[in-house]
Amino acid sequence: MASAIISRRSFIKDAAPLAAVITVPRLGLAHTIGMRLEWQEFKQSEHYGNFINGIRAMRANSKQTNAASWRYWVNVHVNYCPHGIAYFLAWHRGYLFHFERQLRLASGDPQMVLPYWNYYKDPRIPPEFLDSAGNNPLYVQRAGTSVYNALDLSPFASTVYNFQRGTSNAFETRIESAPHNPVHNLIGNQMATMQSPLDPTFYLHHANIDRLWHAWSLPSGKGTPYTTNPYSSSSSNPYWSGSFTYAPGLSLPRYQAYTPSWLGTSSSNNTMPSSLPPQAQAQATPLKLVQAQMDNILNRPPATPFAATAGR
Ligand SMILES: [Cu+2]
């Protein structure tokens, strides 16, 4: 399988040019806010069929240097995503934003917003993803079907009031450790590797992580995700200056990932979980195994940006 992954160098060399830097309307300017729905709500919406068709079309596109292909976005993740370091949450928020724009094109549904899977409500992978019949584009082989053992309420504890990694009890560090990492590992197979976006549950998982971050950051949660609004003191807030890279020609100014509405989305549920779902839904997966699988996530290339190589 490793040979199917394009190298970082050839990815940079061959990638089709995209629409340069995306400019998102700034706070205060009129723009449409799309609603992220929980999977059960999303299934009832008019976007569900388009979502399936869009994923099918992207997966059928074998040109992995083209943003219209599913594999392209796997390569974006393999090459650029930060894990275990600063900007884990903010980079992935921008990743969902860019992927979502492509999925809208592929599905012919410009109003579609990626759904989230609230595993604090039901830790079982939704059955639509488990049906291998009929060339179901949501199906891939997985090792587990419940993420109950990944669930952790401690990121939402009152003691976790710092955002940034490196500070004491930092939210970003806590939520990455759990539930983020063990959800990947309990689902297993591709989800437990850097190629995790091969599995469509990746996008629902990360939409949920993103939702939980926003819920935590609200005044009803723990406050703002960083000490100061990047607009009010950009010069004194270096954390939100600079930009994220996703692919050659595809980036995002960091400050735009500060809050979801600046990227055009809000969520149907902005509260932090306060209890776990029934234990009866748990799948008996030893946590020891989960920890061992963590190596798959941590054995990854360094996250430093590569300089583009000169053409021959
Ligand atoms: Cu992840």
Task: Please describe what this structure looks like.
This protein is mainly α and 312 residues long. It has one domain: Di-copper center containing domain from catechol oxidase (di-copper center containing domain from catechol oxidase). It has eight helices and four strands, in the order H-E-H-H-H-H-H-H-E-E-E-H. A two-stranded parallel sheet has the order 1-4. A two-stranded antiparallel ribbon has the order 2-3. Strand 2 and strand 3 form a beta hairpin. The radius of gyration is 19 Å and the shape is globular. The structure holds copper (II) ion (CU). Copper (II) ion binds next to helix 6.
Question: What is the element string, with H for helices and E for strands?
Answer: HEHHHHHHEEEH
CATH architecture: Orthogonal Bundle
- The first-level CATH class name: Mainly Alpha
Q: How far is it from the N-terminal to the C-terminal residue, by CA?
A: 29 Å
How many domain modules?
Answer: 1
Question: For the record, what is the CATH homologous superfamily label?
Answer: Di-copper center containing domain from catechol oxidase
Small molecules in complex: copper (II) ion
CATH topology: di-copper center containing domain from catechol oxidase
Give the CA-based shape: globular
Q: What is the number of strand segments?
A: 4
Task: Return residue spans where pLDDT drops below 50 for at least 5 consecutive residues.
Answer: 1-30, 284-312
Tell me about the largest β-sheet.
Answer: 2 strands, parallel
Oligomer classification: single chain
Strand order of the largest sheet: 1-4
Radius of gyration: 19 Å
Q: What share of residues are in beta strands?
A: under 5%
| Count of alpha and pi helical runs | 8
Mean pLDDT: 82
Q: Helix coverage percent of residues?
A: 25-40%
Structural class: mainly alpha
